[in-house]
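Why does residue order matter? Because the sequence determines the fold. Keep that principle in mind as you read this record.
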Amino acid sequence: MPATSQLMNETLMDVEHTPPVHKRVLDILPGVSGGVARIMVGQPFDTIKTRLQVLGKGTIGAAGMPPEMVYTSGMDCVRKMMKSEGPLSLYKGTVAPLLGNMVLLGIHFPTFTKTRAYLERDDAPGTYTPWKILAAGATAGAAGSIVSTPTELIRTKMQMVRKNNILQQIKGAAAGGLNPEENYKGNWDCAKKILRNHGLRGIYSGYLSTLLRDMQGYAWFFFGYEATIHYLAGQHGKTRADLEYWQVMGAGVMAGFGLWGSMFPIDTIKSKIQADSLSKPEFKGTIDCLKRSLAVEGHRGLWRGVTAALYRAIPVNAAIFLAVEGTRQLIADTEESVDDFVAKISGKETAAV
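Structure:
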């Protein structure tokens, strides 16, 4: 495996020098590319997952909706969306999570790395302590929830625009239809209207469930990743740098399984709360949403859409690693040229020998 192809949390965020500004930019570029890859590959799966959680057959949100807006499975959701809304509907609400995930990967990995280093400060080099990895991952998830809450709220609102419009047509404005202020034209329009009408409390709707979800999810995300790498490296007395490229990507897939397998029920509650009307909410909060969902849908309802999420984990995590490692390789090949260019424009070019 090439020297530049290290573990994501190491190569992405561990800076071994005190760099000038352009060096710091180069250090975060792999994370930015990973964030782009995560959304461009994963957005269709996220759209399907959210629709199943909110408008799946038997859910609270599906009550009173026409048959073409109620989904029985992931494939049924895809067929109906493609027929009635077109292929671009799978990418509805992409801008906010795209920008958000570019920032998120710049939060999760350094937070995990620094927290783990702090917890293991008195341990011998190479020590593997599961609870410390879980704790560091939970801390990273908590830090990232500050960004993921508003970005996912906007994405969810944009995915629910069609449902809101149909409900308004069925009920009529005089009969309790939805507020026109919730008929969003785009991501920025959505963000502006929510902030104008509901303030920060509105833009952070669903924060508690998002915080709980991300703490649990990223604890197991990083644990799944580190446990797999530890197992693969320890089998034959290898170091991390000795692992093959496909092994590192495989560990990333296991991280994705750990993420979604551990947090999916909480994510379902989060999706319902964020899809709810801000002006006339159906749920009073996280606990009320959980109680009502269990009463109507049972425990099985909390796992609706999990298949799409697990399928998503495979290509998305593979894409993240491809993007991160490819970007790092590109930086390694061109960094010297970039250094020379920056030195020239800053007036610090050294005299030719």
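The chain has eleven helices and no strands.
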